[in-house]
Specification:
single chain; 96 residues; alpha+beta; three-stranded antiparallel beta sheet; 2 helices; 3 strands; 29% helix; 16% strand; rod-shaped
């Protein structure tokens, strides 16, 4: 349920009130029963954390350095070039 902000026109106090979206706005102050005005707020920002998001989101510098180090070690071990099919065919011809 959303939290709405109100300001009393009589006592000038600001307060928040949790209501359903379908509920009508408050008309009386919860402090002095004066007339209130509902304020427009920016709302809360959404932060996505946890599994299921891009691996680059919210990563610390130490994590990024470790990931970079691991990716470099993985590429150096896979840099050995596999035998080309032409080399294999040449060997087959010489053995026949």
């Amino acid at each position: 349920m959303p939290t709405y902000q109100y300001k009393c026109l009589k006592c000038k106090k600001d307060f928040e009130f949790i209501q359903k979206m379908v509920d009508p706005p408050l008309t009386e102050c919860i402090h002095c029963t004066g007339k209130v005005k509902r304020l427009i707020s920016a709302g809360a920002g959404i932060i996505f954390k946890g599994s299921g998001f891009y691996c680059t989101d919210y990563r610390s510098d130490s994590y990024k350095k470790e990931a970079e180090r691991e990716s470099k070690s993985n590429t150096s071990s896979t840099e050995k070039s596999p035998k080309k099919s032409n080399d294999i065919k040449k060997k087959e011809k010489t053995t026949n």
